[in-house]
Model the fold of this input.
Amino acid sequence: MDTGGPSRIDISAVRRFANRAAVRTADTVDVVAREIESRMIERLAMVKLTPKRILEAGSGRFPAFAPLRARYRDAEVIAMDIASHAIAAGIRERTLAERVRQLFTSSRTHAVCGDFSRLPIAPGSIDFIWSNLALGARTEDGLFDEWHRVLATGGLVMFSAFGPDTLMELRAAFAVSGEPARVHTFVDMHDLGDQLVGAGFADPVMEMERLTLTYASVEQLFADLRDTGQANAIAVRRRGLTGKAGWRAALDRLEAMRRDGRLPVTVEVVYGHAWKTVPKKTADGSAIMRFHASAPGATRGGG
Done:
């Protein structure tokens, strides 16, 4: 039964759907992800940062090698994704100019298949974590704690994520009382900010915007979801097909939402960034106190 909270995600299903999408849609660009990527890059203009090593968490088929290298020419960029086929596609799709540039600059890029919630990376070895629309509902599994672990002091995490109003039309059309949810629910912006603080990050900045996509047909909408790997990966989901009557009723509810002849689909995008500052507590929760030596000859007090 859908409780209305963020969906628990089946990671193996996420991997499977992403791999299928990477194989099936080699020439298809995720327009929404590329647009959000460009808006995130614009936000970096307001950030003072000179990272030596960048981790892109959840890079998919189109890692942000080019825009990140363009901004941080001397940085090493590591793209990580849980789907091996997506990583392979990302390597293939690097342009010849990008490959030649790598040979003649100090910048280095790497593509790694792995789970960015369990990083095989030493503590404090990353200066900047970048993640574009890859979080899903995974932050409740200690994801931000893991990112805080691998970030160096003074490091930055910047991400975008789908917010709770994303796909609300589909969620309403397919909602059936007593049935497991068929459409993901996502984490609220304020909860993400609280989770960042709880993981030890400082000065979180959270923003949100809503986009509306429109489709000519239900088939076009579902094809877009499949091609971007956005299938049902909810851990507690109904196994098997929906009955014909239930499916027809859901489609009728969806069709009733048409505006000006097209099907609207809401995408809520949450943007967040925060810093890893000098810790105030040890790992066991004890307070850290710092004492600074006085200059030679200095005295305390005003007398």
